[in-house]
């Protein structure tokens, strides 16, 4: 199975194909494309798990930053009439939560097909 005519893989493709592959016991797996073999499937799952871990950590850091930015402000002095900046934090948090729920529901529906 060759590449289509005129296709030139990007630098990311070359970089990812040069990464060493390992199964769950961290034994090296050959770079031959063999999706039926259990070791190859484990190597793909390990790479996907590492990517998912990176995504999860970045989302946690973003959530902590947003919570700190939105909710941890010094109290306003009594009698101040100046509106606080970022007053729509609750609104934006609700919008993000609704979009995340909608995306999750769409993905679950797509994954069941």
From TrEMBL:
UniProt similarity note: Belongs to the tweety family.
Keywords annotated in UniProt: Cell membrane, Chloride, Chloride channel, Disulfide bond, Glycoprotein, Ion channel, Ion transport, Membrane, Transmembrane, Transmembrane helix, Transport
Positions in coiled-coil regions: none
GO MF: intracellularly calcium-gated chloride channel activity; volume-sensitive chloride channel activity
Entry protein name: Protein tweety homolog
Gene assigned in the entry: TTYH1
Topology term for the membrane: Multi-pass membrane protein
Catalyses which reaction(s): L-glutamate(out) = L-glutamate(in); chloride(in) = chloride(out)
Compartment(s) where it occurs, according to its Swiss-Prot or TrEMBL record: Cell membrane
Transmembrane segments: 43-67, 82-104
Organism: Pan paniscus
Function as written in the Swiss-Prot or TrEMBL entry: Probable chloride channel. Calcium-independent, swelling-dependent volume-regulated anion channel (VRAC-swell) which plays a pivotal role in the process of regulatory volume decrease (RVD) in the brain through the efflux of anions like chloride and organic osmolytes like glutamate.
Major localization listed first in the record, in broad terms: membrane
Pfam families: Tweety
UniProt xrefs under PANTHER family: PROTEIN TWEETY HOMOLOG 1, TWEETY-RELATED
Assembly behavior: Homotetramer; disulfide-linked. Homodimer.
One Gene Ontology cellular component annotation held by this UniProt entry: plasma membrane
